[in-house]
Design a protein that fits this description.
This protein has 486 residues and is mostly beta strands. Helices cover 0% and strands 51% of the residues. It is extended.
């Protein structure tokens, strides 16, 4: 099959159409082409309304949104066109989009029907049963439902039988009996599935009808429970008996409206509900049973936020350096605590790790990290205040620290020159005695001294020196020397 598209665009008074013509090529008679889409774009500065779409030849069909459609400036309408030749001949036509104002928009359509005919329809298939009806057990007075699944050429017809006798009106793949009696016990139900090519009979499904309903018995009693004031609680029961079972919950002997399930969830409880008793009556058509009482204990809510430390001292910190310490916040109550705000006072102090909106469950902890970055020398004091809905809010941690002006340190090394002819010396450093050592000189230096300006206050430094000859052969390490930086 050959399909040719012309992707040129045509403009109608600032309305652009792409493509401007569609050639569906050659297609077998009776077959349908793939769908081709035509885009109409409003390039005007005002809206354009497409009121209708039509084709001049019935073998060309179109689809798209419901009309009329108004296109605002820059919007595009897309319609779809297909071709289904009905005879072996060439077809030419026009897809016309009419506007409420202005000239209509035309798209040229063409295609050829070939003499090939569609493949013949598959032969009809007699029905076969893929899922047989299954046995059903019910209690006298209840209905029973039987189902069958079958395949074959449509339409399929169904006819159910009971003990070989045709059931009037039972002509679906599913059959539901009327309320059965004990006399229907062991009745056999079959279904015949038919079409124009044949029929097939299902296996028999056996109906078992029990003689009497069983009164309910409670197998799992509702259990007593404890809840914090402001929380809801659920009670659950399990019972046996002939369905359907109904449930009616009561609180302190008064029936609770709408509490008709095997599970009951209370509204948020208050301390006034402490020691309330909940029972449930389970019933069916045969009788009823009432559960033992479940006692509700309601504890008062406690909201308490504790911190692992009430003060933090950062000691001495070099100006422009930073020091951090942590405090652990713990929800020591039995209810959730919500952090509403964290504020910090004092120059150079900051805090992170705990933010407003944080919700802490009972027993949950959170780590607050306080930082001290002095901008100048001197002693500074401040605080971190954590506000929440806890009864001991705010939780305040005092802060203190001293800024120390930075003093630059250096270590100068000197040594006696080598007795051999050398081109220079390399200096090495280590933070521990015996190495490993880090080379400080990029290349050998001729001088018999070296100054290390990268040492830090309070640091103990260890140095060794090597000599390098003209062949770039390096000597062993010198004796190690150390320096304590004040």
């Amino acid at each position: 099959m050959t399909i040719m598209l012309a992707f040129g665009a045509v403009t109608y008074a600032n309305v652009r159409v792409r493509p401007s013509n569609v050639n569906f090529g050659s297609l077998s008679v009776g077959s349908t082409s793939t769908t081709h889409r035509i885009a109409v774009t409003n390039e005007n500065i005002r809206s354009v309304t497409i009121s209708s779409v039509s084709t001049s030849v019935s073998q060309f069909s179109f689809s798209g949104p419901s009309l009329p459609v108004t296109l605002e400036p820059g919007q595009t309408l897309t319609v779809s066109v297909t071709f289904k030749p009905s005879a072996a001949q060439t077809y030419s036509g026009v897809l016309e989009l009419k506007r409420s104002r202005g000239w209509p928009i035309s798209i040229t359509l063409s295609g050829t029907g070939s003499g090939q005919t569609p493949p013949p329809s598959p032969p009809p298939v007699a029905p076969t049963i893929s899922t047989q009806p299954t046995n059903v057990k019910i209690t006298a007075g209840q209905t029973a439902t039987f189902q069958v699944a079958a395949s074959g050429t449509a339409p399929l017809t169904f006819q159910w039988r009971k003990n070989g006798a045709t059931i009037s009106g039972a002509n679906s793949s599913t059959y539901t009996t009327p309320g059965e009696a004990t006399s229907d016990n062991n009745a056999q139900f079959t279904v015949e599935v038919s079409n124009n090519s044949g029929n097939v009979m299902s296996n028999a499904a056996l109906l078992t009808v029990s003689t009497a309903a069983i009164a309910p018995t409670i197998t799992t009693q509702p259990t007593s429970t404890t809840v914090i004031a402001g929380k809801a609680v659920s009670f659950t029961i399990a019972a046996n008996g002939t369905a359907p079972l109904t449930y009616r919950w009561s609180k302190n002997g008064t029936e609770i409206s709408g509490a008709t399930s095997f599970t009951y969830t209370t509204p948020a409880e208050t301390t006034a509900d402490n020691n309330a008793q909940f029972t449930v009556a389970v019933s069916n058509s045969t009788g009823s049973a009432t559960s033992k009482a479940a006692i509700l204990t309601v504890s008062a809510a406690t909201l308490l936020l504790n911190s692992s430390s009430s003060s933090l001292s950062f000691g001495k910190v070099n100006v422009s350096n930073n020091s951090t310490q942590t405090v652990t916040l713990t929800n020591a109550g039995n209810s959730g605590i919500t952090i509403s705000n964290v504020t910090v006072s004092g120059a150079g102090f900051n805090a992170a790790g705990v933010s407003s909106g944080l919700i802490m469950a009972p027993g949950q902890t959170a780590t607050l990290t306080a930082a001290f970055a002095p901008s100048g020398a001197g002693t500074v004091s401040g605080s971190v205040s954590v506000a929440s809905n806890a009864t001991n809010s705010p939780d305040t941690i005092s802060l203190s620290g001293t800024g120390i002006a930075i003093v630059n340190h250096s270590v100068t090394l000197s040594w006696s020159p080598s007795v051999s002819t050398v081109v220079g010396y390399n200096t090495y450093f280590s933070a521990q005695s015996g190495g490993p050592y880090t080379k400080l000189t990029g290349s050998p230096v001729a001088a018999t001294s070296y100054t290390d300006s990268a040492v830090q206050s309070g640091e103990t430094c260890y140095f060794v020196v090597t000599s390098v000859d003209s062949s770039n052969t390096e000597s062993d390490y010198s004796a190690e020397v150390s320096a304590l930086v004040p």
